[in-house]
Amino acid sequence: MNLFSRLKELFSKNEDINLFEKNLLLSDFEYSLTKEIIEKLKKFTKDERSIKIKDILKEYLLVQKFTFENSKLNILNIVGVNGVGKTTAISKIANFYKNRGFSPIIAAADTFRAAAIEQLTHWADKLNIEIIKQKQGADPAAVVYDSIDKAMSNEKKYNLLIIDTAGRLQNKEELMQQLNKIVKVIDKKKTQYLDKINYHSTLVIDANLGKNSFNQAEIFKKIINIDSIGITKLDSTAKGGAIFSICNLLKLPISFASFGEKIEDYLDASENSFIDILLNKI
Asked: Distance (Å, rounded) from C-alpha 225 to C-alpha 191?
């Protein structure tokens, strides 16, 4: 049972609000956020709470859709620790926007893991999407450099470049240098191509990691300027409270969610029902 269903069931049984507070904390809501939600719920009767809980939780979900433009090269820099599902998420994003008229290209800039390059290549071939890659151990910034030039060339008009990056948090200094170098390349290319590049940076988090996801978001926010977060593995989470904490305490909105193994198992913030569907899966 997901978080929202579990909380709603508590109120439908007229359980004490202290039990509800305990469930919020066990679901990895931050303490201050939990107290705030409880105070709002106390304003309603027990019968009203099972109805109002959804509206109250909605208040704490920040959402921001990607502002991609067909007339520009939209660069989406995907960051996050290894193992959170970045590669799969990139494939789903590419497929989603390809089906909506965009022409995507993928940059395999996680050059430290051969498996990452192989997995991206597998999906790119399957989706008939071009991928720019180099051998394992190559300079990730060089891959990004080549990818932007390829996308901006006259051979074919690409308007969405999705970049996969490494996420080895155990070596934070090296990761910081690597990501900053990639951003510098992108900034130089933005200057070179004037107003023809639109840049986004999104952090991918695993919904199952709870407070660890919050900690990762804090670290990455210090390393690189992040516009939004993407949530993966929503189909099996019991620690969805961290998502609300990231939105509110770190002020990072959600741009997409991934919840299954199929390429179509993807929710984009541009969809009208995004918040309702997301809340029902958390």
From this structure: 18
Query: And the tokens for 148?
Result: 């932007």
Cα(141)–Cα(19) distance, integer angstroms:
50
Residue 131: its H or E element: strand 130-132
With residue 155 as reference, give the H or E element that holds it.
Answer: none
Distance CA 226, CA 142 (A): 21
pLDDT digits (tens, 9 = 90+) for 137-191: 999 999 999 999 999 986 578 999 999 999 877 677 888 889 999 999 999 999 9
C-alpha pair distances (Å), 50 with each of 23, 89, 245? 14, 33, 22
Query: Quick one: angle between helices 46-58 and 3-12, nearest 10?
Result: 160
CATH code 3.40.50.300 region(s) in the chain? 73-274
Q: Is the Cβ–Cβ distance between 92 and 265 less than 8 Å? A: yes
Closest CA to 28 of 277, 242, 270: 242
Q: Which residue type does 70 have?
A: N
Return the CATH class of domain 73-274: alpha beta
For the chain, helix (H) and strand (E) counts, in that order, are 11, 8
Q: For residue 45, with 0-12 CB atoms within 10 Å meaning exposed, 13-18 middle and 19 or more buried, which class applies?
A: exposed
**What CA–CA distance (Å, rounded) separates 193 from 101?**
23
Q: Which helix (H) or strand (E) segment is 225 a member of?
A: none
Structure confidence at residue 238 (pLDDT): 63
Residue among 270, 244, 252 at smallest CA distance from 93 = 270
Instruction: Supply the pTM of this predicted model.
Output: 0.93
Counting Cα atoms < 13 Å in the Cβ hemisphere of 71 gives: 1
